[in-house]
Amino acid sequence: MTEAVPSLPPEIAAIDLADTSIALSIDATTYGLEALQAAGYTFLDRAYVILDRPSPERYRVTLAPKKSEGELRAQLTRLAGEFANELLAAAYRQRLQHENRALIESVTMRTVAGAMGPAEAAPSLEELEAFDFSAEAFEDPLGIAMSWEEKYGKKSPPSAGEPPPSTSSDGEEGPR
Amino acid sequence: MRTLRLHRELYRGEAIDAAAKIYASYAQIALVEEPAYWVVNVTASSPARELRVARELANQALGLTVRDR
Q1: What is the pLDDT of residues A99-146, one digit of tens each?
Q2: What is A87-152 written as a DSSP string?
Q3: Minimum distance, in Å, between the CA of residue A47 and any CA atom of chain B
Q4: What is the pTM of this model?
Q5: Does the beta-carbon distance from B9 to A34 stay under 8 Å?
Q6: Fewer CB under 10 Å: which end of chain A, C or N?
Q7: A48 to chain B, minimum CA–CA distance in Å?
């Protein structure tokens, strides 16, 4: 046995006290399927939601609260109002998303393309294959890239015929 | 027995299958295909349990439908 919601036309909303639920009739030409599903999804934690499409022009949403909070009629009416608000917000979000889709895609494309760098910078496989990896990476006249052992380590005794190593002008031989 | 009719345009079949598997241990669940609806028959030890399982199953199916959209 259903009864109308006082503030709404009976063809829009009907309360079923025996089933502890309220049914809303939604215009399918005003609200899209994605908005309806999105709005229903946000209510899954506090209500049982069943969607239906009795005709091509209408959706029907049946909401039943999971927990009883006060007088049932008032709770169901409140639930229906909150769902209608959420449905409107979801529909508006969908509209914004569709309108800005081209802009979002353009910005995302530029960002990804910029992160990849210019196409000429990456050497081809043939260039990599022909590259001489045995060549010295760079010149190091000051010995910056030398290891500590190479620069200051004990030198091996000179072999016969070789001159002794010369010391620097200030007599410094490096750290001890 | 409680019968749940979920419209094919609004619910994905895979989502209903997955939801039915989840709640199969709480009630006997039978799925029937109709041209416009997925029909879920729920049989349990009491009408209250059937109603609860049917509603939970419908919520699960909607959640999975939206998640995998």
Answers
A1: 888 888 888 888 888 777 766 667 788 888 888 777 766 778 787 888
A2: HHHHHHHHHHHHHTHHHHHHHHHHHHHHHH--GGGSPPHHHHHH--TTS-S---TT-TTS-HHHHH
A3: 9
A4: 0.69
A5: no
A6: C
A7: 6
